[in-house]
Amino acid sequence: MHPVVLFDGECNFCDSSVQFIIKNDPKGMFHFASLQSETGQELLKKHHVPSDIDSMILIEGDKVYYKSAAALRICRHLKGAWKLLYAFIIVPRPIRNIAYDFIAKNRYKWFGKKESCMLPSPSVRARFI
Question: Which Gene Ontology MF annotations are present (predicted)?
Fold first, then answer.
């Protein structure tokens, strides 16, 4: 089973993050679903994700990662120097999440919000569930 990235489909920053992952994931390891989609909602329920989580979510097998842990685990599998960011996993989670929460809290204000989820290009459509 491929790891699944759940993202806010209305957030421009989140959309850019998904596009970045696709561009730097040449093996096509990650699959994607928006949090607002039926599939996204089913995965949230299946993995008992608390409703107050405002984060990109990574599901790998039976494990669920939020916030900075999700971002760093994704980086670990990307091409190039991005995988080096995984070294920050040694920083205690509460400290890592301060920066993550600051960006997440301001993402709509800084990057804007969309009316609907993006439509992936035909070449990557199969990676969206």
Answer: protein-disulfide reductase activity
Q: pLDDT digits over 10-21, tens only? A: 777 788 899 899
108: pLDDT strictly greater than 80: no
- CA-nearest of 6, 17, 13, 4 to 82 is 17
| CB count in 10 Å sphere of residue 62 | 8
Alpha-carbon torsion, ordered 27, 30, 33, 39, to 10 deg: 110
pLDDT range class, residue 70, cuts 50, 70, 90: very high
Report the C-alpha dihedral over residues 95, 99, 104, 109, rounded to 10 degrees. 150
Q: Is the pTM here over 0.90, yes or no? A: no
Q: Which residues contact 122 (CB under 8 A, 6 or more apart)?
A: none
